[in-house]
Amino acid sequence: MPEALNACSADARWLAAAAALAARARPLSAPNPGVGALIVRDGRVVARGWTQPGGRPHAEAVALAAAGEAAQGATLYVTLEPCAHRSPRGPACADLVCASGLARVVAGCMDPDPRTSGAGLARIAAAGIEAEFLSSPACARSLSGYLTARRLGRPEVTLKLALSLDGCIALPSGESQWITGPEARAHTHAMRARADAILVGGGTLRADSPRLDVRLPGLEGRSPQRFVLTRGGVPDGWRALPAPAALADMEGILHLFVEGGAGAASAFLAEGLVDRLLIYRAPILLGGRSALGDIGLGSLSEAHGRWRMTERRQLGSDTLEVYEACNPAGS
């Protein structure tokens, strides 16, 4: 029994490492999910891979090509079940695995795509390779946008709020740059770089003319597509989202980052379309404009039990709190 527990613990650690590796794929792999893969032999990583820009090659294909003969008798740890469907853009990863000489495959998430769902691991097992599914929270988090899109037909939505201690996003005059310090703003840019699209409300666009790009050295090329919540016209380089409910029409978008202002934030919350909150809190008092308007709550009791904190960290003089919806689509 202790040996089995140790093996399971080791598998979980390798899957978590593959999930961390998968971050390199995001968001360039869109519209395909960003998957991470590690090939391990005798407790040592012999190859690794992640989904390449545009979605191909897949992580398993990259790792197997890098491993070569070292894949013989090794274990593949992959964040998502290897695909079972063939594509004009590349072979099915399950077929590559079957021909690889691997001894074992461990997947951290089953693929909800009906073309693969269960068939990938079944095909691998039929080829005589040990194939296991070990539910991994780390892998599910890394694939949250893909899982949300598959299960709910819309992108995963992260709402970012930069607040004063009294919950304001601007002075009474409307001045809002900058509430948080440079460390928090740099973190926001890193979060932008992980999104496929970024959205603000029409009022924020008119008042601030935000660039909404990524201004971190080396990540400038990961600036997301820019959307504005409006039914009217938009400037060049922007796209319109007429209403939060139109998320399903955002083709190819897995991760949407909503930055403001109060109207847009309130609209998404009122529709129950926010999966994750990033709250950057600065140690200042403003007595100004509130971060939110009406979000559709009929009673105080309805406000409880909706969010759970998953992370808290200090960013210079500011504090970041991360909350996830209590019933996330990717769980």
TrEMBL record:
Domain CMP/dCMP-type deaminase, first and last residues per copy: 9-123
Q: Which residues bind NADP(+)?
A: 162, 178, 204, 208, 261-267
EC numbers for this chain: 3.5.4.26, 1.1.1.193
Query: Which Pfam families does this one have?
Result: dCMP_cyt_deam_1 (PF00383), RibD_C (PF01872)
Q: For this protein, what reaction is catalysed?
A: 2,5-diamino-6-hydroxy-4-(5-phosphoribosylamino)-pyrimidine + H2O + H(+) = 5-amino-6-(5-phospho-D-ribosylamino)uracil + NH4(+); 5-amino-6-(5-phospho-D-ribitylamino)uracil + NADP(+) = 5-amino-6-(5-phospho-D-ribosylamino)uracil + NADPH + H(+)
Show the SUPFAM superfamilies listed in the entry: Cytidine deaminase-like, Dihydrofolate reductase-like
- Name the catalytic site residues: 60
Q: Does the keyword Protein transport apply?
A: no
| Residues at which Zn(2+) binds | 58, 83, 93
Which GO MF term does the entry hold, naming one?
metal ion binding
For this chain's record, the cofactor binding note is: Binds 1 zinc ion.
Q: Which cofactor does it need?
A: Zn(2+)
The pathway entry for this protein reads as: Cofactor biosynthesis; riboflavin biosynthesis; 5-amino-6-(D-ribitylamino)uracil from GTP: step 2/4; Cofactor biosynthesis; riboflavin biosynthesis; 5-amino-6-(D-ribitylamino)uracil from GTP: step 3/4
One of the protein's GO biological processes: riboflavin biosynthetic process
Detail which positions bind substrate. 176, 192, 212, 215, 259
Question: Which UniProt keywords are given for this protein, alphabetically ordered?
Answer: Hydrolase, Metal-binding, Multifunctional enzyme, NADP, Oxidoreductase, Riboflavin biosynthesis, Zinc
* PANTHER family assigned: 2,5-DIAMINO-6-RIBOSYLAMINO-4(3H)-PYRIMIDINONE 5'-PHOSPHATE REDUCTASE (PTHR38011:SF7), DIHYDROFOLATE REDUCTASE FAMILY PROTEIN (AFU_ORTHOLOGUE AFUA_8G06820) (PTHR38011)
**Assigned protein family:** In the C-terminal section; belongs to the HTP reductase family. In the N-terminal section; belongs to the cytidine and deoxycytidylate deaminase family.
Role noted for this protein? Converts 2,5-diamino-6-(ribosylamino)-4(3h)-pyrimidinone 5'-phosphate into 5-amino-6-(ribosylamino)-2,4(1h,3h)-pyrimidinedione 5'-phosphate.
Supply the name of the protein: Riboflavin biosynthesis protein RibD
Organism, per UniProt?
Novosphingobium silvae
| Lineage, broadest ranks | Bacteria, Pseudomonadati, Pseudomonadota, Alphaproteobacteria, Sphingomonadales
